[in-house]
Amino acid sequence: MTTDLTRATAAELADLLGAGSVSSREVTRALLDRTAAVDGAVHSYLHVDEDGALAAADDVDRRRAAGESLHALAGVPIAVKDVMATKGLPTTCGSRILEGWVPPYDATLVARLRAAGMPILGKTNMDEFAMGSSTEHSAYGPSRNPWDLERIPGGSGGGSSSVVASFQAPLAIGTDTGGSIRQPAAVTGTVGAKPTYGGVSRYGLVALASSLDQAGPCSRTVLDSALLHEVIAGHDPMDSTSVDAPVPPVVEAARRADVSGMRIGIVRELTGEGFQAGVQARFDEAVQHLVDAGAEVVEVSCPSFTYALAAYYLILPSEASSNLAKFDAMRYGLRVAPDGLDAPSAEQVMAATRDAGFGDEVKRRIILGTYALSSGYYDAYYGSAQKVRRLIADDFARAFESADVLVSPTAPTTAFRLGDKLDDPMAMYLNDIATIPANLAGIPGLSVPSGLADEDGLPAGFQVLAPAMADDRLYAVGAALEARLTAAWGGPILGRAPELTEVAR
């Protein structure tokens, strides 16, 4: 076990705290000091709550000293993506239109973190309203990849992936609408899980696309993600889409890490052409590790996946157009008066505010979604996309008849350079080609590091998909692969990141 508290995993910190070897204040202070040293370069956070985090840590220490029975993760600090409502803390969604907004309530997920006694270190950076694959669309500037500060940390949750990869937090919360937990995990060498849709409450999550959004864990190990998953999952009557069913045994599966006899399905449409050679090579090696661990490999075909990207980029903008209509300058957030008008109408104030408050990518998707929902075009565009969505779900159902889990590379490439795709929306959208199908079908997915691509020495990700509410299968496969790869690498992959030492200077 590492003696550097910032490098310890959440599970290691939980053991140290439970044994009384360290206090939550010491852990929290160490992480806050790390943030002070490196976040100027990485820009993972939009808001750091030093006072609140230390107060929460002191409360846990007092309760532990008094002999109270506490949650296993009590005292382990965490960072939260800035799309979650946090009482008393700013929630901006990476947008100017919500600059300065402080919610009067906590999202259910945040309330569960607080109830478990986990100090919240701060709110992490993100693409504006979760629209993007690079965190370059944040109104407050991009986050950077700790492996190479000139590269993206993924998106929309690049703040959550980079805060974990740069050892500023052992755990973070992200959200995944089309891959925004899994793709950032892949390009930063971390672990990211998208639970089954409805498995984690969306109450208090500022909606992008209500039928696609799902919050989930970001961590450095599969077990840590499982531990956090268990904290935040479960039925919530405040969320009408919440699944009223027991939480899958994710922690047990992660600890067992057994894939013997499991059927691993390689999705033909999510490998090969279009995937960076080094990413594909690491994927193939990871599959062989699973075979060596006792798994059986089969190939499956999901032909409708070819249309997933097109369907997604009609469904998401359509739902975003509806969800973002509430940002009208009348109730909360930014309000801009139009120039040259002494008595502007509500519509004129609304137009001026949206023009100033929304970034280009948000405007692009609102316009696209509004068009797709307009009279005369609804059936041709949005309606057709929903039919494709049904076909994708059917493809998954057939694939799971012959395989227990499906696997693919998480993203087609390693992290690209900042600015490389900023002016090419289609090139940016293609980063989600392997992750989008899971969101359209509502099934769970997990990304674990598969190694470093030969071309650039940057991390690649291995994606595991499972049937709805079979999230435990993800953690069994992920933990088995992680154990074998860690042994092959001689330690955690993040220990090989060249920028991490430099960042701390």
Keywords for this structure?
Amidase signature (AS) enzymes, EC 6.3.5.7, 17 helices, Amidase_dom, nucleotide-binding, about 500 residues
Structure description:
It catalyses: L-glutamyl-tRNA(Gln) + L-glutamine + ATP + H2O = L-glutaminyl-tRNA(Gln) + L-glutamate + ADP + phosphate + H(+). This is Glutamyl-tRNA(Gln) amidotransferase subunit A. Its EC number is 6.3.5.7. Heterotrimer of A, B and C subunits. The chain is of the alpha/beta class. Helix content is 40%, strand content 11%. The chain is built from 17 helices and 11 strands. The chain has an 11-stranded mixed sheet with strand order 1-3-2-4-6-5-10-11-9-7-8, sandwiched between helices. Helix 9 (277-292) links the parallel strand 7 (263-267) and strand 8 (296-300). The longest helix has 24 residues, at 379-402.
Principal-axes geometry comes out as: globular
Q: Quick one: CATH superfamily? A: Amidase signature (AS) domain
Number of domains: 1
Please state the second-level CATH architecture.
Alpha-Beta Complex
CATH level-3 fold name: Amidase signature (AS) enzymes
H/E element order? HHEHEHEHEHEEHHEHEHHHHEHHEEHH
Number of helices: 17
Strand order across the largest sheet? 1-3-2-4-6-5-10-11-9-7-8
Mean pLDDT: 96
